[in-house]
């Protein structure tokens, strides 16, 4: 099991603390409302859905959601919430969405919260290629992640040969984990997604950013 898997498995029961920080509340309310508008009536694929924090808001307007994550412990937490549209779950590696395609599944929306920052730069294309094979043309894709202000809590403690940055995170048990956490710029986000989609929106909040594009095939 890799470092990130251990970290998110152990952190699952207390993951939602990040949504309680007082300084994040205004940004969260804005994002919660924004994503509901985007996914109205859509079939949404959620990547690395974690404990389902965003799933609950998407479910208010979406037609259906397939919430995926690699960690059983995270999906167990997600299943404790209630949702307002049909939500299926799947233990699924974000880099191997081909399994869904084999089953004939396709989606008119995709969402990934706080996931892109964990994708190594050298695997971005692999991740997006994996994701896009499940989307219908015109699908709306939203990526949400932390802005660099998050480094005030978790300073960068390392950089590798590909330019990926790392933070050292400590859990309640006292274990420490070296977690890959990147902070892509708007230019980098545009460059990475341009071959696959039409840029639609970038919202730069104090604590988070939101990047949205329309999948074009
Ligand atoms: C920072 S959490 C984000 C959870 C949720 N999207 C949210 O915003 O609250 C990152 C999630 O990625 C999941 N994850 C890590 N590696 C993964 C992979 N290769 N494929 C799918 N999910 C993965 C972890 O289990 C964890 O739930």
Structure description:
It is a single chain. Helix content is 27%, strand content 30%. It has a single domain (3-148, 185-215), classed as Rossmann fold, CATH 3.40.50. The protein is α/β, with parallel strands linked by helices and 217 residues long. The strands form two sheets. A seven-stranded mixed β-sheet has the order 3-2-1-4-5-10-9, sandwiched between helices. The protein has a three-stranded antiparallel β-sheet with strand order 6-7-8. Strand 4 (107-113), helix 6 (124-132) and strand 5 (135-146) form a beta-alpha-beta unit. The termini are far apart. The protein binds S-adenosylmethionine.
Topology:
Blueprint: H1 3-11, H2 25-38, E1 43-47, H3 53-58, E2 64-69, H4 72-78, E3 87-91, H5 98-102, E4 107-113, H6 124-132, E5 135-146, E6 156-159, E7 165-170, E8 176-180, H7 186-193, E9 197-204, E10 208-215
Parallel strand pairs: 1-2, 1-4, 2-3, 4-5
Antiparallel strand pairs: 5-10, 6-7, 7-8, 9-10
This protein binds S-adenosylmethionine.
Note the gap between the termini: 34 Å
Main beta sheet: strand number and arrangement? 7 strands, mixed
Structural class: alpha/beta
Q: What global shape is seen?
A: globular
Give me the count of strands. 10
The percentage helix is 25-40%
Small molecules (ligands, ions, cofactors) in the structure = S-adenosylmethionine
- Listing every helix as H and every strand as E from the N terminus to the C terminus, the arrangement reads HHEHEHEHEHEEEEHEE
CATH superfamily: Vaccinia Virus protein VP39
């Amino acid at each position: 099991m890799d470092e990130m898997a251990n970290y998110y498995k152990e952190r699952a029961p207390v993951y939602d603390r990040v949504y309680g920080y007082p300084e994040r509340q205004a940004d969260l309310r804005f994002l919660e409302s924004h994503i509901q508008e985007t996914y109205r009536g859509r079939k949404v694929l959620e990547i690395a859905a974690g404990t389902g924090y965003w799933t609950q808001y998407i479910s208010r307007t979406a037609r259906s959601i397939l919430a995926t994550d690699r960690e059983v412990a995270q999906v167990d937490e997600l299943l404790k919430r209630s949702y307002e549209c049909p939500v299926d779950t799947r233990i699924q590696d974000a880099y191997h969405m081909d399994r869904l395609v084999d089953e004939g599944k396709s989606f008119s929306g995709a969402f990934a919260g706080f996931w892109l920052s964990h994708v190594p730069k050298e695997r971005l294309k692999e991740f997006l290629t994996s994701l896009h094979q499940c989307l219908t043309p015109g699908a709306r894709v939203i990526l949400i992640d932390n802005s660099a202000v998050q480094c005030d809590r978790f300073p960068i403690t390392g950089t590798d040969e590909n330019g990926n940055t790392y933070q050292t995170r400590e859990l309640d048990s006292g274990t420490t984990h070296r977690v890959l956490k990147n902070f892509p710029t708007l230019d980098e986000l545009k460059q990475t997604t341009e071959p696959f989609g039409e840029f639609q929106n970038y919202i730069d909040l104090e604590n988070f950013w939101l990047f949205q594009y329309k999948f074009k095939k």
